[in-house]
Amino acid sequence: MTTTAPGAGGEAAKAPAQAPAPGGAPAPGPEAAKGGPAAAAAPGSTGSSPWQLARRELRRRPAVRVSLGVVLLFVLMAATAPWLGALGGWSPEEFDKSAIDPYLGGQPLGSLGGISPEHWLGVEPVTGRDLFARVVHGAQVSLLIAFAATAIVVVAGTAAGIAAGYFGGRTDTLLSRLMDLTMSFPSLIFMIAMLSVAKDVNRIVLMTAVIGVFGWPGVARVVRGQTLSLKHREYVDAARVGGAGSWRILTRDILPGVSGPVIAYTTLLIPGMISTEAALSYLGVGVRPPTPSWGQMIAESVAFYETDPMYFVIPSTFLFLAVLAFTLLGDALRDILDPRGGRS
User: Fold this and answer.
1) Which helix or strand (DSSP H or E) is residue 209 part of?
2) Any idea what DSSP says for residue 123?
3) Whole-angstrom distance, CA of residue 86 vs CA of residue 160
4) 292-330, pLDDT tens digit by residue?
């Protein structure tokens, strides 16, 4: 006759048999059903790429979805600037003398800076140029410089950071000292001086190159730190022991591991690039007239802010919304893809 320990029979009767899961893995215990630690590691939370993780989290944040919508709207506006200007009926360099009053110093006719069915955002004082056409073409110039400079910064910074962190030794010392030298250089003064003396050059190309040259050390430092933490992981050691070369390890093992922080940092770089371009154009060393730029338009509107405040408000609003939308989106991506970096 078999005896059962006191209380064991009741517990055994209440607890259902734990059938093995498919593939021989044990079935989840009671903690998973109760929302315990086993439930915290949901199947979808592991093995996701940075883009999948970001897409899933962004759907849960209404404010970030609005920011993403504004960013996409600005990108679309910049990409279709020639067609939008033609839709409004005016080119950014076309004068409309009938929209200004020559007896009042060239002030726009009508209220709110001359807003009318012919000029959707009004006109510039004195010249009568259409503000809608100039704003959308200014978006094209600002975003083109911002995106191109950010691409230079991210590519150069990622390459330098991975090389410094992975190879170490003299390579790390040389690249780290170059980062320190570049970051300690008075970049804004150099930009102003360089753009002031350069005359017969493409200003957009020159601004992109100058801004990009001084921006890469920040990305390189972030990537170097991530690479140092990844270079001794088990899968990297296994690839090295298996005979994989440095190029294969860097591109297939290290680079995917640093992609999350790089994506987040890239999104945060863009509003800074937009602000830098606007500041340089405001100071008169950026994009030259008649090419429109938000910073240039704000600088020209200072002389009319008392008599025609809308001339100042419109480009300033577009600049503010673009920088704010990119900043909010970048902050959200940093919290999602690089949470430890966001807390520090």
Assistant:
1) helix 203-213
2) B
3) 44
4) 899 999 999 988 888 889 999 999 999 999 999 999 888
